[in-house]
Amino acid sequence: MVAAVALAMLFWGYTDWSKGYGLTTVADARGTVLVLDKLNEEGRWKENDALLVRSVFLESYFTPDRIPEATRAHVEGAILSPYTTLYVTQTPTPVFCLGMSLFRADRFNERTDRYYHAEEPGEAALAEKLRPYTGFWIHSHEGGQQGFMARFIPWLAEAKGADIRVSRKRSSAEDRYFTVHPTNKPGEPIEGLTDSQQGDFSFLVRVSVQK
User: Fold this and answer.
1) Count of domains for the chain
2) Nearest CA to 198 among 137, 130, 144, 136?
C-alpha cells in the first residue's frame, strides 16, 4: 500500500488532471527557489520580506488543527524542508508554513462563517511569527487558490492591523494592485479579491503592509 501511494504521488504530476502540479511541496520547490533568487537579484525581494508556503493537497492532511504544538513544528519543518535544506536561496530567506489550507475543507466545518480569525490560538501564533515582516510572497498552487486568498488576505490585514496591498497578474498598471483593509469583515465583498478572476494570481503572490 505504501508503494502504491508513493507511485501515485510520483505519477500524479504527469496526468492531465493534475495540470502539472504535484501532490507535495517539493514538486516545484526547486523552481520556486530559482524565482526567489531572481527576485533578489532584481531588487524586488525587500529586507523585511518573508516567504509563506501553503502546503499542497497531500501534506495538508498531516497538519490537523489540534495536534500538539511540538508535533506541528516537526510536521511543518518537514513540509518546509525543500526550502530550508534541499533547495536553498542564495540569500537566507525567512519561510513559514501556512497550515491554514483550504485543501482541508473539514477545518471549517465547526466555524459558522468558515473564515480565519487572528484571535484563535493557532492563527494568533502564526500572526506573532509574522509580526516582524512587512512584505510577503505567498506560494500557493492553483487548486482552491482564489478561495484561499479571499480568506487569508483579510486575516492578514486583521492580524497586522494595517492595509494590505496585493499584486495581481494583470498587464494594465491601474489594475495591477488592490488594497484590503483591516476593517473588512469576513465574508463581505472585497473588490479585487472576492471578485478575482482565474489567472489573477500567480503561484507567487506579493502582498505588502501599508503604513
Assistant:
1) 1
2) 144
Residue 115, in any domain of the structure: yes
Comparing 186 with 155, the larger pLDDT belongs to 155
For residue 4, how many other CB atoms are within 10 A of its CB?
8
Place of cell 531572481: 38
- Grid cell 476593517 is found at 183
Q: Is 148 exposed, middle or buried (0-12, 13-18, 19+ CB in 10 A)?
A: buried
pLDDT at position 210, please?
A: 92
* Domain-located, residue 87: yes
- The C-alpha atoms of residue 43 and residue 109 are separated, in whole angstroms, by 42
C-alpha cell at 64: 490537523
3-class SS at 4?
Answer: helix
Residue 172 lies in a domain: yes
Contact 153, 164 (CB under 8 A): yes
Question: Residue 118, Cβ neighbours under 10 Å: how many?
Answer: 18
3-state secondary structure of 207: strand
Is residue 16 domain-resident?
A: no
Lowest-confidence segment of 10-14, 15-19, 104-108, 150-154 by average pLDDT: 104-108
pTM over 0.85: no
Residue % of the chain over a pLDDT of 70: 70
Contact by Cβ (8 Å): 183, 139: no
* Domain of residue 173, residue span: 24-210
Q: Does residue 118 surpass a pLDDT of 90?
A: no
pLDDT at 91 over 90: no
